[in-house]
């Protein structure tokens, strides 16, 4: 038995599961195991030289100029001054200094017998490529977005990796086992060209999810009798209007409270009314009265299903909350800070960094989940596949702007954080550490660690910040409108990658082969472990079962460093100090071990719901119902088509998701309609489609999608 089963096999199994099960994904199963008895030495031992792929020969010590990393100076291959300081000693006993390779890349360098030279500027993938695009002769490998690398590949600036697959056995095997991935990264279906190495931040799993201070929900909603408080604020004058029905009954599937199966749950609007309609009729009200109105609604609309544990409507395994119920809860939270944090102020819904556009966009992504709108979390622009098997652009659909109108109404009521509205410098860490914030939409790993680092300090026991179920919303997957849970936030090929500069490597076979060997090594068994975990000093000799596959445990030294250097934040630790998880294959097994128990609890609820089919999602396959098909990371457009698309500047400039960009979807949430030509949802959608060339853009992308479909048939 091999100590570490191949991650290629892991990913294959996951993809095949997605292809076979419509709207269903596997639940995480974790089991401790002792190390295999027959193995006396750690597998993946990097002390021996990795065999070079046959044919990829190059001179020992070949120098590779690397303009590669992941979105900041801290996350490059080499230590920056802020991270290394005057020298930092790590778990392997070595001291690392500014400008030196990080441990993972020291090992890669030794394994491949190359020399890495740092050219990375520490930008986002898009800006990094923009910095080098006119001087690609100065670098050998460069970070970029999949779109930019592919566009420049078609323009003759990047190496077509597909031409060398026969010399790259690991990468070739991976693509052959995963044709949907090959399709997703193919930049030209006529030639099969691939211009970047794909990055996977986990595969076939939910990416972003709602996170709440669940202890606050329990304080407000649980218990016998009426809620009482010595002090509270007034709710704002109502602006938000009902999204869910105001009468009748709606049946939804929920996971049983014990996670053992699925049951039908009825929202009885005839019995309980619509909570927003009832609150709006009352107008601005005392926070205590608002809580008791919500309590009564839960009892009546759900016929006592939740009993005195009403908070389970939002935070339980059997949660069934929707947008209206969330708005009602937010009204109660914002109006009762005295009970929740002992002050006169609490922020409702916030983003990870309220002054960072790249994080603020999570607010409109969440709007899509709340109000049943596709395309707002798309891997490629704002595209999604409709049930007609054609591409649709969320920017050109009135439903998008109707959802954002609802978010704007929430902003008008003060339910979104003040810092989100004014773009001031607040972060989720600040909100949570100081008991100022209630909820945001983000990666589970990012903030559940706050439970260990920020919460439950100073004797305040019971504080809990946890991932909760995605909401019930109105969705039409082609079978008619239904009330169900669906998340578009699904892990697949990321939008960033590394490409090989054609002018950089020039006519040097040594440089070209060394670059190709690096990519191939990253997809080998040893390479995948190394690129996720770092070298052996950061791994234990013990293993555990993760999703049925034997994976390394992290070492005690690794765990200590994780908390000492990065406050328990696995991603920051791995990227800042080890140099791992930088744009190849990232195993969730490492991340799972570093997740706080509260994080595991919330993720476990969601994983169970996915496994039982009560949360539906896109598939990494051409699904039988195309509405469930994931949009590829890259679509095969020609240079002429790319040049045409790049001329549609409004689509790029007005919908920018980069850190320092502007985005009209966010502007609409904050300010409402401000453009004279766009004063309502339908008019805004029509303007994007017509005046901003949205129709022409979509026609080009649709043609490329049809090429992709035909190409995929040749890969199966």
What does this structure look like?
- This protein has 716 residues and is α+β, with helices and mostly antiparallel strands.
- It has two domains: 7-201 and 492-593, D-Maltodextrin-Binding Protein, domain 2 (3-Layer(aba) Sandwich); 208-354 and 417-474, no CATH class.
- It is built from 33 helices and 23 strands.
- Residues 1-53 have low confidence and may be disordered.
Describe the structure concisely for a colleague.
By secondary structure, the chain is an alpha+beta fold. 40% of the residues lie in helices and 15% in strands.
Integer average pLDDT: 86
Summed up, the domain count is 2
> End-to-end distance, in Å?
30 Å
Helix % is 25-40%
The count of DSSP E runs of length 2 or more, i.e. the number of strands, is 23
Q: Which stretches are poorly predicted, pLDDT < 50 over at least 5 residues? A: 1-53
Over the alpha carbons, how many angstroms does the gyration radius reach? 26 Å
Sheet with the most strands?
Answer: 5 strands, mixed
Strand order of the largest sheet: 5-2-6-20-9
Structural class: alpha+beta
Assign the CATH architecture of the largest domain: 3-Layer(aba) Sandwich
Shape: globular
Oligomer: single chain
Question: How much strand?
Answer: 15-25%
Give the number of helices: 33
By CATH, the topology of the largest domain is D-Maltodextrin-Binding Protein, domain 2
The CATH class assignment of the largest domain is Alpha Beta
CATH superfamily of the largest domain: Periplasmic binding protein-like II
């Amino acid at each position: 038995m091999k100590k570490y089963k191949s991650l290629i096999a892991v990913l294959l199994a996951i993809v095949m599961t997605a292809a076979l099960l419509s709207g269903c994904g596997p639940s995480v199963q974790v089991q401790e195991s002792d190390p295999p008895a027959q193995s006396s030495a750690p597998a993946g031992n990097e002390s021996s030289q990795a065999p070079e792929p046959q044919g990829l020969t190059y001179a020992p010590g070949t120098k590779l100029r690397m303009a590669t990393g992941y979105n900041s100076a801290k996350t490059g291959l080499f230590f920056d001054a802020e991270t290394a300081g005057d020298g930092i000693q790590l778990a392997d006993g070595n001291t690392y200094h500014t400008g030196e390779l990080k441990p993972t890349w020291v090992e890669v360098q030794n394994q491949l017998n190359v020399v890495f030279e740092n050219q990375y500027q520490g930008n986002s993938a898009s800006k990094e490529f923009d910095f080098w695009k006119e001087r690609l002769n100065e670098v050998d490998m460069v970070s970029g977005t999949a779109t930019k690398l592919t566009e420049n590949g078609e323009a003759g600036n990047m190496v077509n990796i597909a031409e060398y697959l026969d010399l790259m056995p690991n990468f070739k095997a991976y693509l052959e086992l995963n044709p949907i991935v090959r399709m997703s990264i193919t930049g030209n279906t006529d030639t099969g060209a691939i211009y970047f190495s794909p990055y996977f931040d986990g595969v076939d799993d939910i990416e972003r999810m709602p996170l709440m201070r669940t202890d606050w929900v329990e304080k407000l909603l649980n218990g016998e009798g009426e809620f009482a408080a010595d002090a509270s604020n007034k709710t704002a004058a109502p602006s938000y209007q009902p999204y869910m029905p105001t009468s009748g009954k709606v049946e939804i599937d929920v996971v049983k409270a014990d996670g053992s199966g699925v049951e039908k749950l009825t929202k009885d609007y005839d019995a309980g009314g619509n909570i927003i309609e009832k609150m709006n009729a009352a107008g601005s009200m005392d926070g205590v009265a608002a809580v008791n109105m919500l309590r009564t609604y839960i009892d009546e609309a759900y016929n006592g299903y939740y009993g005195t544990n009403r908070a389970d409507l939002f935070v339980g395994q059997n949660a069934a909350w929707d947008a209206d119920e969330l708005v009602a809860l937010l009204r109660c939270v914002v109006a009762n800070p005295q009970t929740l944090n002992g002050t006169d102020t609490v922020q409702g819904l916030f983003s990870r960094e309220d002054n960072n556009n790249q994080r603020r966009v999570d607010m409109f992504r969440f709007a899509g989940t709340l109000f049943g709108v596709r395309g707002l979390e798309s891997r490629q622009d704002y595209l999604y596949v409709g049930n007609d098997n054609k591409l649709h652009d969320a920017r050109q659909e009135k439903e998008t702007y109707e959802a954002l109108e609802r978010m704007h109404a929430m902003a008008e009521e003060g339910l979104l954080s003040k810092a989100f509205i004014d773009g001031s410098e607040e972060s989720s860490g600040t909100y949570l550490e100081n008991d100022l914030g209630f909820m945001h939409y983000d990666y589970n790993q990012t903030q559940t660690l706050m439970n260990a680092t920020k919460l439950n300090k100073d004797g305040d026991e019971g504080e809990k910040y946890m991932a909760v179920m995605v909401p019930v919303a109105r969705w039409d997957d082609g079978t008619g409108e239904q009330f169900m849970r669906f998340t578009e936030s699904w892990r697949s090929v990321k939008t960033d990658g590394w490409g090989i500069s054609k002018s950089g490597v020039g006519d040097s076979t040594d440089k070209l082969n060394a670059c190709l060997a690096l990519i191939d090594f990253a997809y080998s068994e040893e390479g995948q472990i190394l690129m996720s975990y770092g070298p052996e000093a950061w791994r234990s000799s013990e293993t555990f079962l993760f999703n049925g596959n034997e994976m390394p445990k992290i070492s005690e030294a690794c765990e200590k460093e994780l908390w000492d250097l990065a406050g328990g934040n696995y991603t920051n630790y791995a990227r800042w100090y080890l140099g791992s998880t930088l744009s190849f294959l990232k195993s969730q097994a490492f991340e799972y071990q570093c997740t706080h128990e509260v994080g595991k609890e919330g993720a476990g609820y969601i994983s169970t719901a996915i496994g039982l089919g009560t949360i539906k999602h896109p598939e990494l396959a051409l699904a039988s119902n195309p509405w469930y098909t994931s949009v590829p990371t890259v679509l095969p457009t020609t240079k002429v088509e790319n040049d045409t698309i790049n001329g549609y500047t409004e689509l790029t400039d007005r919908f920018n998701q980069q850190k320092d960009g502007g985005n009209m979807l966010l502007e609409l949430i904050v300010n409402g309609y401000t453009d004279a030509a766009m004063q309502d949802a339908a008019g805004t959608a029509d303007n994007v489609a017509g005046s901003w060339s949205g129709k022409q853009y979509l026609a080009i992308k649709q043609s490329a999608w049809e090429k992709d479909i035909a190409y995929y048939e040749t890969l199966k």
